[in-house]
Amino acid sequence: MTEQNEQKAQEMYVELQLLTQHVKQLRQQQELLEQQIMEMAAATQSLDEFGKAGEGAEMFVPLSSGVFAKAKIIDTKNFLMNVGAGTCVVKDAASAKKLMEQQLEESRKLSEKMAMQVERFSRKAVQLQRQLQSLLPAE
Questions:
Q1: Is residue 85, in this structure, part of any structural domain at all?
Q2: CA–CA distance, 36 with 112 (Å, rounded to integer)
Q3: Domain tally for the chain?
Q4: Which pLDDT score, from 0 to 100, does residue 17 have?
């Protein structure tokens, strides 16, 4: 192998490693996003069920992961929503549902973009791997 080919092979190897790491990170982010999408979809459905329960109904509300408290519903028309940066606002049921559905749609679009990036980077990695193998001497 010539010195020039060896240097090119090293550069391609480094690029391949970076691409592989980037794909791995994107997949992890996509996995987290998919979890959030499932949680948002469940929350949207819960909002509908909550309205059907009616005032005075008892239910379990989550305090943290796996910890619930029994509570009595006193208002099924208004909800306190976190809109980011530690800011919460009161929204009526229709506005809350609309906001949640918008967030859900945005998250789904982001997930699709991430999937396309993973696909594009994976194809590039395969292409680099083939080029790298063509530079290496046959054994």
A1: yes
A2: 14
A3: 1
A4: 94
Domain that holds residue 55: 3-133
Amino acid found at 22: H
Any domain includes 139? no
Strand bridging mode 58-64 / 87-92 = unpaired
Phi first, then psi, for residue 79 (nearest 5°) are: -135, 145
**CATH at 7:** 1.10.287.370
User: What pTM did the predictor assign?
Assistant: 0.75
- Structure tokens that stand for 42 in this block: 């469940």
Q: 107, 36 in Cβ contact below 8 A?
A: yes
For residue 69, what are its two tokens?
A: 């408290």
- Which tokens go with 19? 């691409």
Distance CA(81)–CA(95), nearest Å, equals 10
